[in-house]
Design goal:
six-stranded mixed beta sheet; Purple Acid Phosphatase, chain A, domain 2; 4 domains; alpha+beta; D-amino Acid Aminotransferase, Chain A, domain 1; phosphatase activity; Ap4A_hydrolase
Length: about 725
């Protein structure tokens, strides 16, 4: 307590905020986090050299201490998770290397439970000399008698100065010996220190007499990656953004380091088994495929991870808000209709039309689409043919083992084809398998497995013709309108003509105007029927389908938003050439929107497409992600042809009185949804590529579906 007993004292008081010792958030690394060493100095030296550290001789040699240290030429820093001592053959050499690296600033170290037990022994506490402590004490006792007191004093000071855990790299990385819950990170207390040293136990013991540990990592939901050791495991495996890197070097396993931020594991094998483990941890060789810890955990998803109002952080657009009611609607759709959730890594965003055109007789025109990107600072755009099909997401793996390793699928599937709401496109599993076999064969023929160093790809496509559901809609709704209109309008026109013959003056003029509208409606209905017929044909075999991929969204290690749309078009065109019977390359044209001649070419290209019966075109900035003066620009805008719009808005939509009303459509909400869904879709893919838990990927997938529940004019 501080007592300020005068105005002068109050005026002179200064409050200074000092971070806790565990707060190293300003230290961004990069780091190499090293697992439990347990006196395996040979393996430690080999591992550090493998990581690129160079051996240095430390001056000012103290009795009993090694004068060896290691420094990385690129400034990387080692972080030791503790348990430096006990069981291994060179405990004091291990302590010397780590102490020297910490002193020189090339390493950090947190204490392990074995290190703290040694500290207690050195400071006169009564501890049981078990679990390898005897070997450590024997090394100390072997020192010259005159060096031993100074050495034990400095060793105790070193161990006592170790901080329970570190929060590093802006809070993205936490290192603690036995792990740490989210609410404890960055705090300092006895409870926090105990958790860091021992983890959390259930109070029970197993058949080996060892404490049964509570799996805190299975419940972890924090944003920081937690790297720890303490309990030996055969392989380091990520679980909910946590990883145990104690791979039991002293027990004949390996000494492992995690490179951060690369998230790469580097291991060296133990030279031999120095100590037999009480509980066997190295599995017997078993060829049976198994899931990773994360995949096993993801097999049971928790609705609480996607329900309620959610604010999803995205790299492209900051926070995207998902309302509670829409999240509930998304869960309803997913739980009733969705495919195997392990395949659902992406849902495509909605797409806004271009600004409403002022051209006579037009609702949409390319001039507005091209002008939009000119105002967004995108000098060149890619105009792509818009196929009249159903949006399809295709995930395909090189083989069954890739599907098992990357997606946790064990039933022999090699991929999936889903709709934009996450449903399977194919009810027939055999048809889907044959379809995917053709796609993956084309990917292989184009050399993508090797050129992308991947075993899987995720493609954004159009599947033609319209899906069975859409074709049924055409037959029951659009075709019914056309057929009924073709029959009813001539009868109505004949009746009006007969009535007009019996009238004169204003009454006859009014009927003549109605008859004129009917004549226009009859012509519109003929065009309406001709328009929808172009987008339907029977599907009796695999060869009746056409798949037009236009985005190579992601592959192992990469989300390809850093590539231009021309790269996507050309890369996928090579895939399509490998199987032209099934796959259709999307035609495109690059347009300079700052050049009037280029704009005219773009407009002419659209007019040619729509004049030949095409739906229209999609205009995208050359770069996959474009930022304008006000932030993220639309990833794409569609410009539909007049005859396709007839299907959407009705046979006589282009009548003057109808067009005038339709031009009052509002696009702001649609465009906001498009940006939010685009950001969520990319975020979900990036999380999947980073191998984050499936719940984190689904947060974005559900977010896209939830935003689709927002009320908006479906004709836009």
């Amino acid at each position: 307590m501080f007592v300020l007993d005068s105005a002068e004292a109050v005026e002179a008081a200064v409050v200074e905020r000092v971070p806790l010792w565990n707060d190293r958030t300003a230290d961004a690394g990069p780091f190499d986090v090293v697992g439990d060493v347990h006196g395996c100095a040979d393996e430690l030296e080999t591992l550090l050299e493998t990581l690129g550290y160079g051996k240095v001789v430390v001056g000012g040699h103290e009795p009993g201490w090694s004068n060896t240290g290691y420094v990385h030429p690129a400034g990387r820093k080692a972080v030791f998770v503790g348990d430096l001592v006990d069981r291994g053959p060179r405990v004091l050499d291990t302590l010397g290397i780590v102490r020297n690296m910490v002193a020189s600033g090339s390493a950090l170290c947190v204490p392990g439970n074995h290190d703290v037990k040694l500290l207690k022994k050195l400071t006169g506490r009564d501890v049981q000399v078990t679990h390898g402590l005897a070997e450590t004490l024997a090394e100390i006792d072997a020192l010259p008698a005159d060096a031993r007191p100074a050495f034990t004093k400095s060793l105790a000071a070193f161990l006592d100065g170790l901080v329970s855990h570190y929060v590093l790299d802006g809070g993205k990385l936490v290192v603690a010996h036995a792990g740490l819950r989210q609410e404890m990170q960055g705090r300092g207390s006895g409870k926090v220190r105990d958790f860091c040293l021992y983890g959390e136990t259930t109070g029970e013991t197993d058949e080996f007499g060892l404490p049964v540990r509570h799996n805190w990592a299975a419940e972890y939901r924090g944003p920081a990656a937690v790297v720890y050791g303490h309990t030996p495991v055969p392989e380091p495996e990520w679980l909910n953004n946590t990883v145990n890197i104690d791979t039991g070097s002293v027990f004949g396993g390996r000494l492992t380091a995690l490179r951060w931020p690369e998230r790469e594991f580097v291991s060296v094998p133990a030279a031999r088994t120095y100590c037999e483990p009480v509980r066997p941890f190295l599995p017997d060789p078993d060829p049976t495929p198994r899931l990773t810890a994360q995949q096993s955990h993801d097999d049971l998803l928790d609705a609480a991870d996607v329900l309620g109002k959610r604010i999803v952080a995205t790299r492209l657009r900051g926070s995207v808000t998902v309302r509670e009611a829409h999240a509930t609607a998304a869960l309803e759709v997913m739980s009733r209709f969705a495919a195997d959730p392990r395949w659902l890594i992406y849902l495509p965003p909605t797409m806004s039309p271009c600004e409403t055109s002022g051209e006579p007789g037009r609702l949409e025109h390319p001039a507005e689409a091209l002008a939009y990107y000119r105002t967004q600072g995108a000098p060149r755009v890619v105009c792509e043919e818009k196929h009249m099909g159903s949006r399809a997401v295709v995930v395909v793996c090189r083989d069954e083992s890739a599907a098992r390793e990357r997606f946790g699928v064990l039933d022999g599937e090699v991929g999936i084809v889903t709709t934009r709401t996450g449903r399977r496109f194919f009810a027939d599993p055999d048809l889907e398998r044959r379809f995917l076999d053709r796609v993956r064969a084309a990917v292989a023929a184009a050399g993508l497995w090797d050129s992308l160093s991947t075993t899987w790809v995720c493609l954004d496509c159009e599947l033609m013709p319209w899906s069975a559901k859409a074709q049924e809609l055409l037959k029951t709704q659009y075709a019914a309108v056309g057929s009924a209109g073709r029959a009813a309008v001539p009868r109505a026109a004949a009746s009006l003509a007969a009535a007009a013959g019996r009238l004169a003056g204003d009454e006859k003029a009014r009927l003549d105007r109605v008859a004129g509208r009917l004549a226009g409606l009859e012509a519109g209905i003929r065009k309406f029927v001709d328009a929808y017929r172009q987008y339907c044909w029977p599907v009796n075999a695999l060869t009746d389908l056409k798949l037009a991929p236009f985005h190579l969204l992601a592959s192992e290690g990469s989300v390809h938003t850093d590539k231009s749309h021309v790269w996507h078009m050309d890369t996928l065109a090579a895939v399509c050439r490998a199987d032209p019977e099934l796959l259709l390359a999307t035609s495109y044209k690059v347009v300079d929107v700052t050049d009037p001649a280029g704009v005219a070419e773009g407009v002419a290209w659209w007019a040619d497409l729509t004049g030949r019966g095409g739906e229209g075109m999609v205009v995208k900035p050359l770069d996959f992600v474009q930022r304008g003066k006000r932030g993220l620009a639309q990833p794409a805008v569609k410009c539909r042809g007049p005859e396709y719009l007839r299907i959407i808005y009705g046979p006589d939509y282009d009548a003057a009185e109808n067009l005038s009303r339709l031009r009052g459509r509002r696009l702001a909400h649609k465009r906001s949804l498009a940006l939010g869904e685009f950001a969520l879709g990319v975020e979900g893919l990036e999380r999947f590529v980073r191998r984050e838990p499936l719940r984190r990927v689904h947060e974005c997938v559900f977010g896209v579906l939830a935003l689709e529940s927002e009320p908006v004019d479906p004709r836009l």
